[in-house]
Design brief:
The complex is a heterodimer of chains A (471) and B (522). Chain A contains twelve helices and 18 strands. In chain B, strand 9 and strand 10 form a beta hairpin. Classes of the chains: A alpha+beta (471), B mainly beta (522).
């Protein structure tokens, strides 16, 4: 009882959304399925009890469908070894990964373990208040495969670089504790992902940090929070990484960085505006992490005293400021936004998406991969100083007095190529025209802040931020 | 027409850029098909540029296609706009100035070439892709409207041919023939991209013709449809040449005639059913695809008005068929170097010279595998009554070995060929009498060894021919005398075409990585 109290009082240190698998997951220890490519990683593993030695990274991902919880680990490792071949043997002495699952967040001490070494030996335990069997447990129908799967022991070799474990765990194994089987959209579980072992550099690392004084993976109070999402993983979800990291990073950023870089990275007085339209020197996660963690010598940028996990969250936030719209978690109802696009907003009169819509404006099929969310918002709400290239309004008066109204697709001193409001292309030689009158304002209305309610505008942005070619 | 249809048509006055009657008529000011018109004659009624003034022709504009090497696209021109393609890409240009209007880039692009052009219908532009899709673009913006998968690209299929648009349908072929992948001819709905029918060029078990393949050899038979065919709207028949059998050079593993490889197939455009076929080279072992454009001509033949089909084959023979029935009328060599057959039977079947088949040591084979002719389009001028063709003289040394079919787009050729040292290759433009195949004149393309460009015939009495030295040349259609030429600076691998805007005739073609348009000085 007391333990449960502690568990619910402490917010889980990390959170992750488990997307539905958008396509079948083939359990072959290769992780080259489209589904895995689209699934975002859970985030960096932390080395809770690190003393010395290299911190080799692990990339873990989760997916689900009506049958299974899918989990994968990709482990960077210069020294790969494993010897245990016996079912339920002590696999954690070998290079080994683990997932501990609490299907009921109100009863985190009811958890199930799956520990798999690099040569494919598994150990399972059922640590629940209802289990009366032996210390080990036989889950039903678990399929898994490792990159060194087999019946042979694995000695270290100079070629060792990385190894992979991939598993499909039937959800029915958790039916006794889970609220729903399969889970419903928004269902919350708790779990942790771990890695350890091997002859050389047997570092123990976990996804969800385990605070001192605990010295064991068997600390369910410290498990991270996972939320099952009915939405399939997409390119957007992958690129977003863990959106909750970015949200947490935003809070951290606005607490400690605004003095120089401005609120939300929008306007820097003493440091660069981190999310504005400018050229950035540091772009990658590593470069940004280094700048925050160690500061930038010769500038006012100080080293941050925050723990690495928090620095990574700030990095995620800064990257989200710079990301195109699809990489950002945009609230709102995309379906209603699509409706607004086609009806009240009249957007489809000029814009085409996936082969439907008008011609005069840019095709927006891939807009979320091309533009930042802020740019989409300002295109809808802030008048542009000039029409964009290829979309300048024009009226051509021909020698016979007839007029062509449309937008200039291309032009030069002798000719213009005009897409007319009549949906035809017009090839005009300037010598054949009496007058060519350019419009100074873009045909794009910029008053959607007024035309639409705040909620409608948000829905429209939610719709646009999901428009990618590889959707 | 029902009342409901009438109302619908009245209520929706959709502007069709290219209607079916346009495609049928193919007005000379426009160039609406890969080969200009459904009959594939590549003869234009435009006559502003003539034998008398051809010497004055000048380049009017050039457009460089970024990243292109050897373009094989034939430009389509309609409504003052020119559409050209390279693999994965379409460009819309102002046909008077060469200025870019829009471009389409397929992402992610699989690199495989060439692409031979687009088709237009309504307000759509159609193109086949290296990853074996048919894509439909909006002709005014280049927006992707839909895409339809033709075949699995991972199997090795791809789609280089320009589509052919007929009423409500886009006809599409597939490549290749050399990987042991079986071909077909497809029809797709112009509006939705839905497949309407498919004709398999290699008959499956139970279908007539399957017995012409020994054992299971039909499974890897080839028979691609990688060039654009022709169409007779009256008969509603499509005429399409089919590719070689696979493995190309080792016939031992596929004894039999190997239908319908190296045929012209006449396919009902409504149903996709085979009306008739004529096989040029039964059991070919020299990779002599018969995809060369079959030209449709209505003419007197031996005192009787007939619907003819004229075809110069890669195997060195020129054929005339009755295109209603497929009856063989005449066949005669159009190259001097021909050693594999001693003649044709009364049914048009070649009389093989024993021993002229690929061997382990190499066998002299004439014409060479590169072909007496190839994808370079021929032309027909109704005024002269002559058939114009780009021909290669010379021989090859053809070898064979036992090959294994490997799925996934691996070559399955059973070895290959080299140029014969004794009979080096040389390209010619030749005029043949349509009826008899008699050579009327020839023009030697000095220093051009193989392939090159197709031909354009105009009512100005000219034949335009490109070559792999980069020259576009205007020849007198009656004498073959060169009247004008221009060095485009890059090898030409595509056929020229012509169009007119504002009363001015242009001749244009893809030359290397550029599109170049020519005309008379202003």
């Amino acid at each position: 009882m007391a333990l449960c109290g502690i568990a619910s009082a402490q917010a889980p240190p990390v959170e992750y959304r488990i997307y539905r698998a958008p396509s079948p997951v083939v359990i072959d220890g290769r992780l080259d399925d489209r589904a895995w490519r689209l699934a975002p990683p859970v985030g960096d593993f932390v080395f809770n009890w690190h003393v010395s030695g290299e911190k080799e990274p692990t990339v873990a991902k989760l997916l689900w469908d009506d049958e299974n919880l899918y989990v994968s680990w990709r482990c960077t490792d210069r020294h790969i070894s494993a010897y245990e071949l016996k079912r339920h043997g002590p696999v954690s002495k070998d290079d080994c990964v683990e997932i501990f699952v609490s299907p009921n967040p109100n009863k985190v001490r009811n958890y199930y373990t799956f520990e798999i070494n690099v040569i494919g030996t598994m150990l399972n335990r059922c640590r629940t208040d209802w289990w009366t069997g032996p210390p080990t447990w036989e889950p039903e129908g678990v399929r898994y495969r490792t990159s060194h799967h087999g019946l042979e022991k694995k000695d270290e070799s100079p070629d060792d670089r990385e190894w992979v474990v991939e598993a499909a765990i039937p959800l029915r194994n958790f039916a006794r504790d889970a609220a729903h089987t399969p889970p419903r959209d928004g269902d919350e579980w708790r779990l942790n992902l771990q890695r350890l072992g091997g002859k050389t550099n047997a570092q123990a690392s976990t996804w969800s940090p385990i605070p001192p004084p605990a010295r064991s993976f068997h600390t369910p109070e410290a498990f991270g929070k996972v939320i099952f999402v009915a939405q399939p993983a997409t390119a957007a979800s992958r690129a977003a990484g863990n959106p909750l990291d970015a949200a947490a990073g935003r809070e951290l950023y606005n607490r400690s960085c605004t003095g120089c870089h401005g609120l939300d990275g929008a306007a820097g007085d003493r440091g660069p505006a981190l999310g504005s339209q400018r050229t950035f020197l540091r772009r990658t996660t590593e470069e940004l992490f280094d700048a925050i963690k160690n500061g930038i010598k010769g500038t006012l940028m100080p080293a941050s005293p925050l723990p690495d996990a928090d620095v990574y969250k700030m990095v995620a936030y800064i990257r989200s400021l710079r990301a195109t719209a699809r990489d950002v978690e945009v609230p709102g109802d995309p379906e209603r936004g699509g409706e607004i696009f086609r009806t009240k907003g009249q957007c489809a009169q000029c814009h085409m998406i996936r082969g439907r819509g008008g011609l005069l404006g840019p095709d927006l099929t891939n807009i979320a991969a091309e533009r930042k969310l802020d740019d989409l918002k300002s295109a809808l709400t802030v008048p542009r100083p000039h029409p964009g290239r290829g979309y300048v309004p024009v009226t051509v008066v021909l020698k016979d007095g007839s007029r062509i109204k449309g937008v200039v697709k291309n032009e030069h001193n002798t000719s213009l190529q005009v897409l007319g409001e009549d949906s035809r292309l017009h090839m005009v030689m300037r010598a054949e025209a009496q007058a060519v009158e350019y419009g100074e304002k873009s045909l794009m209305p910029a008053d959607y802040g007024k035309r639409l309610s705040a909620a409608e505008l948000q829905d429209l942005l939610a719709y646009l931020s999901r428009q990618t070619r590889d959707q | 027409m029902t009342l409901r249809n009438t109302l619908l048509l009245c209520a929706l006055p959709v502007w069709a850029q290219v209607s079916y009657p346009d495609l049928l008529k193919a007005p000379p000011e426009q160039w609406l098909h890969y080969n200009g018109q459904y009959h594939g004659q590549r003869h234009s009624a435009l006559n502003q540029i003539t034998a008398a003034n051809a010497a004055k022709v000048v380049p009017k504009w050039m457009f460089h296609v970024p990243g292109a090497r050897r373009l094989e696209s034939v430009p389509i021109v309609t409504g003052g706009v020119m559409y050209i393609s390279q693999p994965n890409e379409v460009y819309a240009l102002d046909a008077r100035t060469g200025r870019l209007i829009w471009q389409y880039n397929r992402q992610p692009a699989l690199l495989k070439g060439p692409n031979r052009g687009v088709a237009v219908y309504g307000t759509k532009v159609y193109m086949g892709t290296p990853d074996a899709f048919l894509v439909a673009l909006d002709a005014r913006t280049g927006s992707l409207l839909w895409e339809t998968k033709l075949a699995e690209a991972s199997d090795g299929y791809w789609s280089p041919a320009a589509p052919l648009a007929i009423e409500g349908k886009v006809i599409m072929g597939i490549a290749p023939s050399d990987h042991g992948l079986n071909g077909w001819l497809d029809a797709y709905d112009t509006e939705t991209g839905e497949r309407l029918w498919r004709f398999h060029t290699i008959p499956r078990p139970g279908e007539p013709g399957n017995e012409t393949w020994a054992g299971d050899s039909w499974k890897t038979g080839g028979g691609g449809t990688w060039l654009t065919g022709t169409y007779d709207p009256e008969l509603n028949l499509l005429y399409w040449g089919t590719g070689n059998p696979a493995p190309d050079f080792d016939g031992d593993v596929r004894k039999g005639d190997n239908l319908y490889t190296e045929c012209v197939i006449a396919v009902d455009a409504s149903t996709g059913k085979l009306k008739w076929y004529f096989q040029f080279t039964p059991w070919d072992v020299h990779d002599w695809d018969s995809v060369e454009v079959p030209i449709l001509v209505d003419a007197e033949y031996k005192g009787r008005k007939r619907k003819l089909l004229a075809h110069a084959d890669r195997n060195g023979y020129y054929y005339v068929l009755d295109r209603v029935t497929g009856e063989f009328l005449t066949g005669t060599p159009f190259v001097d170097n021909l050693n594999w057959a001693s003649g044709l039977t009364s049914k048009g079947r070649p009389i093989r010279v024993p021993g002229v088949i690929p061997s382990l040591q190499g066998t002299k084979t004439c014409p060479a595998t590169s072909g007496a002719t190839n994808w370079m389009s021929p032309a027909y001028n109704p005024a002269t009554g002559w058939f114009y063709v780009v021909a290669q003289e010379g021989c090859g040394i053809n070898t064979k070995s036992r090959d294994t079919f490997r799925p996934g787009g691996n070559p399955y050729t059973g070895t290959g060929y080299i140029e014969s040292p004794e009979e080096p290759w040389q390209m010619y433009v030749r005029a043949l009498d349509l009826q008899t195949g008699k050579r009327m004149w020839e023009y030697k393309q000095v220093n051009s060894r193989r392939y090159g460009a197709g031909l354009l015939s105009t009512a100005g009495g000219l034949i335009f021919a490109g070559d792999d030295q980069g020259f576009l040349t205007a020849l007198d259609a009656r004498s073959g005398k060169p009247l004008w030429s221009f060095n485009t600076g890059q090898a030409i691998s595509a056929s020229p075409m012509t169009y007119a805007i504002g009363g001015k005739q242009y001749v244009a073609l893809c030359a290397g990585s550029n599109v170049v348009a020519f005309g008379l000085p202003d």
